[in-house]
């Protein structure tokens, strides 16, 4: 019998409402609105929208007040900086700074900063941690201050795990008790892979840091009431396949279906055989599917996982009792109405990878060799040469005095280092301890990384067993492959060590390099110098293999153009052969010391072997031991000195942490919106421009705008660190916005972060171009194609755009999170008329752009006028839709952003 108050869905059902037909995810949203109904921010209309949920879709907005917020440090640091900046402005205006705190619990996990500088040795972890603290001391001091200076915020120190795996294994409660109420555990997170928690029956998704900060400060999050796609799973995963093969296949299916902005809910008898970690593997890749969530309802599998991960019996009983009482328990016999049903028979799965630059580009393992040939020809205009027929175009010697690159001379090209050939590139590297040949398709990074897979014991134990069998056959990883193992929690290390498989992985140089996201987010670290030089000089197209969830261009490593996602087990296998232009199902991986061929089937474990090892190696006590001390940190964290007190003291000389300028001298009332007159195009972009292209991410050099800024502050190149580590300094971040080396701006021939200052026709960096326009007082716009802003929920993709002076983005379509973030920063998202694009309308990016219809009667989805004037005087006019999708969007836009709106609400009290 429930002893807490509940917002009863059963009572709605008994009153004649047909709640039984609603998807579980919609029921949770309904409970949220029912419980938080106040007649003002959350109204009867919102309640009616959900009670009478329309499977066909609606343009009506609904509010959502999550139970908590999850952050990682890359997005968490700017969020803490923003809230601390709001507190500072509030104090300057005479307010009590202690009133500015998170209104709901916030868990911030430091997992995005560790980089793989050292690998393949027993000291790799210690050295990487040492460098992590050296590079991030100022950021970590801010976070350590926040843990005591901001109420309702906890910080998980570095080296404890990846936020989503920590969330799955420890933070998630299933059902929350608070203020006399019991209600579903829900959250939003500042990382796009937050939906991983859907695998344990907790509804949550990724939002921009901007939205998350508003939720932290007690504001509802508004979004369009979603359609719900039913994903029906039948059968079970066959022997020889993994949960990773399953999720990559689902990625392809759902991308082809088109689920952007929709919920996906999983049902069918296939769920009965899927563990919570299998389910979480699927949910983790919701952003790659394009959907907001991939929800698995709570059932017996959920409670079994909670018990095995050391949740208390009291908590487990609460989850069972509440869900069964309030129509949130899955029995498998539900008759739910979905917007559409997509089916997958799990028994049809085959070993799969995805790449080379999109997660949805599924390739069967037995077809990767043929696909590589096609990709090499199509994308790089090179003819494939069979492995045994290759001749080196150059060789690389590493001597005692350094590295020398020598090109084989030809009659035509005797004086140049450039390789002039249409054939596959191949370079022989001679070292003091041996030599080897690198070619197009050589694997230079093999990373067991990402909570997508490291949270799943079946594939981690599986990878260890592959390693064990390979070692027993006398095999070793290829010497040119940079190997790494980055578990998502220390529980993984415990069961790998207990099973003895950690030793086998280390024998193949898969040593633990850190407990964080590493290569999955681009923290692969530098390649060995001789390999990096060979790639640059020969322009080889090398590859990475990783158990991550993203493989966009330049994400894993700027020198690696092909990136393939796969299970940890396949990562080990491909590291043994060292190249992707093979058919791993038929070609030998290598040869044992006696000359016998060793094939994948010879080292692949059976499901029984994997399950038996899991049963023997995993213990409930490991979760207790790891998570009892989760907030304590290691010795480095304990001895880290940090400020104390209610106000953070800003250091104006810091190149890591600066007070943001968004709130300085903020007026108590917003200024009325104005039309955009005679704006210039800063960038003209194509389709599928991701937030990785827009937002500063990864490393940068001394020639970049950000690099020049740091040099001017006395920071040496070796101490630049990454953009992500400097997200707390807007000066660095605005200079790195649109600075991705692979971004293609159609108004200039230069690849990378360049634009044109049209008054003088100078080609400059995007930052320098924007600053010249800022001096002129010229507003800026961005033109783009489909799916603008897809990818991770990077708030700096919007913040940086705002600081550069971008007033509007005109695109064919937007990814959900980035559209919301643009509005949250006071930037207007505009959609071209259906079926039209910048190209079809005849725009070149050289025009002056005026946008009217903003100054009066601004409302959701308003049609506005865009006028583009060419230098010749020719005018192109068209109507377009302002993607302000709700009344609250309009209010945020009028205030110049969501945080300005929140601060003004505090000032008005």
From TrEMBL:
It comes from Sphingobacterium gobiense. Catalyzes the isomerization of citrate to isocitrate via cis-aconitate. It is an enzyme of class 4 (lyase). CDD domains: AcnA_IRP, AcnA_IRP_Swivel. It comes from the Bacteria. Belongs to the aconitase/IPM isomerase family. Residues 708-834 form the Aconitase A/isopropylmalate dehydratase small subunit swivel domain. It holds the Pfam family Aconitase. Gene3D superfamilies: 6.10.190.10, Aconitase, domain 3, Aconitase, domain 4. Keywords: 4Fe-4S, Iron, Iron-sulfur, Lyase, Metal-binding. The gene is acnA. This is Aconitate hydratase. The lineage of its organism: Bacteria, Pseudomonadati, Bacteroidota, Sphingobacteriia, Sphingobacteriales. One of its GO terms (biological process) is tricarboxylic acid cycle. Pathway: Carbohydrate metabolism; tricarboxylic acid cycle; isocitrate from oxaloacetate: step 2/2.
